[in-house]
Amino acid sequence: MQAVTDHGFIHLLRRYGGADVCFAEYFRVTADSKLDREILRCATANETGRPVVLQMIGNDVTHLVRTAKELQKHPVAGIDLNLGCPAPRVFNKCAGGGLLRDLPRIDRILGALREAITEVPFTVKTRIGVEAAALAEFEALLAIYARHEPDLLTVHGRTVREMYRTEVHYDFIAHAVAVMRCPVLANGNVDSPETALRVLAETGARGLMLGRGAIRNPWLFEQIRAAAAGREVVEPTGREVLAYLKALFETVTDEGYTEEERVHRVKKHLNFIGLGVEPRSAFLDGMRRTRSREALFEVCAAYLEHDRPMRLVAPSVEEVNALS
Ligand SMILES: Cc1cc2nc3c(=O)[nH]c(=O)nc-3n(C[C@H](O)[C@H](O)[C@H](O)COP(=O)(O)O)c2cc1C
After folding, report:
1. Do 49 and 133 have their domain in common?
2. Which of 4-13, 192-201, 249-258, 284-293 has the lowest mean pLDDT?
3. Same-domain check for residues 196 and 248
4. Does residue 217 form part of some domain?
5. Which atom of ligand 1 is nearest to 1's Cα?
6. Same domain, 164 and 263
7. 96 CA from centroid of ligand 1 (Å)
C-alpha cells in the first residue's frame, strides 16, 4: 500500500507472524520512470524470509515491458500489475483502476507482459469494474485475464467508483474463482479471523490479501492461521498494542526528520488503526491533534495501558451510527 507498506513496515509485520507473501507498494511506470530505490529495497534487502512481489502501475506497453525486464534482474518473487487503484491522479491518467475502461489496452498490456515476464510469476490485481457492479463487465475483464494466463489473480471485490467503503462483492470473487485457471486471492474488508474464514468459504479463493486490517492488527495473519487450523485465536492486550504503536513509530519514521514530521508520518498508519482502538473516534481525534512524540504516546497510553484483550476491528457504519 502506497506510503504505508514500505520496507520497514513489512519487516515489522514479520515480528507478529506476517504474510506468507508480501506485495510491495507500486512503482509508477512512465516514459522516463526509473525503479524507485526504496520500493526496490523491499525485494533486494528482504530479510523477512518470505517472498516479496513488486507491483507496477502504468498504461504504456513499452515502458511496462521495459520495467518488467529490469525488475527481473533483481531478486523479486513475482511481478504484479495494478488494475485497481482509484486515486484520481492515477484513474484520470488511465492507469490502475482507470485502465478497466480500456479493455483493448489491457489486452495488449497483458499479452506483452506475459511474454516479457519469463523468470518469475506474473500476477494481476484487479477490481471488478468501473462504475456500478455488473457481472457482464467483470466477465469481459476475466475473459481477457484468462486469455493471458497470469500465474495469480487478486480480486478486490469493489468497482473503482466504490473506492474503499462499500460492501465487498464477494460473489464476484467467487465467480473469478470459478472462471480462472490460476489461483485467485480474495481482497476487501478482511479484518478478523471470522471474516477471513467466511470469505474463504464463500468465495472458494485460494487465499486472502489483507490491506488495512493488517495495519490495524498485525497479529491478524497468525490469528487467521490459528482459526484455520482450529487453534485458539490469541488477541493482543492493550499494552501489546501500545508496544506495536511504539515500534511503528520507530520503524516508519526516519530519524533524519524533525519530531513533528515524524509524528505526522506515523499518523498515516494510525488513521487506519484508530477506530480499532476506540470506536467513537475519540482516540483518532486526540492523536490527530498531537505534535510531539510525548503528546502522541500520552494519548495512546490513555487508551492502551491495560491488559484486556483487544479485537482491533473497526466498527461497521451501522455500529458507528448506533454509538452516536
Ligand atoms: C492508502 C492505500 C494505499 C494503497 N496502495 C495500494 C498499492 O500500492 N497497490 C495495491 O495493489 N493496492 C493498494 N491499495 C489497496 C489495498 O491493497 C486493498 O486492495 C484495499 O485497501 C482493500 O483491501 P482491505 O479492505 O484489506 O484494505 C491501497 C489502499 C489504501 C487505502
Report:
1. yes
2. 249-258
3. no
4. no
5. 5
6. no
7. 12
Residue 8 in any domain: the answer is no
Closest by Cα among 133, 127, 171 to 153: 127
Q: How many domains does the chain have?
A: 2
Same domain, 205 and 245: no
Hey, whose CA ends up nearest to atom 19 of ligand 1? 156
- Respond yes or no: is residue 42 known to be catalytic: no
Which one of the listed residues 22, 85, 94, 182 is annotated catalytic?
85
209 alpha carbon to ligand 1 midpoint, in Å? 10
Task: Give the domain range for residue 251.
Answer: 238-304
Q: Whose CA is nearest to atom 4 of ligand 1?
A: 1
What is the per-residue pLDDT for 324? 58
* Ligand 1 center–CA 210 separation, angstroms: 9
In the sheet with 78-83, reading across from the earlier edge strand, the strands are 22-28, 52-57, 78-83, 122-127, 152-156, 184-187, 207-209
| Alpha-carbon gap, residue 103 to 22, rounded angstroms | 28
| pLDDT tens string 52-110 | 999 999 999 999 999 999 999 999 999 999 999 999 999 999 999 999 999 999 999 99
Q: pTM for the complete prediction?
A: 0.97
Q: What is the pLDDT of residue 19?
A: 97
Q: What is the mean pLDDT of the chain?
A: 96
Give per-residue pLDDT as tens, 110-162: 999 999 999 999 999 999 999 999 999 999 999 999 999 999 999 999 999 99
Helix (H) or strand (E) segment spanning residue 24: strand 22-28
* Ligand 1 centroid, distance to 160 Cα (angstroms): 12
Q: Cα separation of 215 and 248, whole Å?
A: 10
Regarding whether 115 and 28 lie in a shared domain, the answer is yes
Domain end (from 159, 192, 209): 209
Residue with cell 492488527: 217
Regarding whether 133 and 275 lie in a shared domain, the answer is no
Which residue among 1, 124, 169, 252 is best mutated to probe the pocket of ligand 1, counting the most ligand atoms within 8 A of its Cβ? 1
Packing angle, helices 238-252 and 259-277, rounded to 10? 150
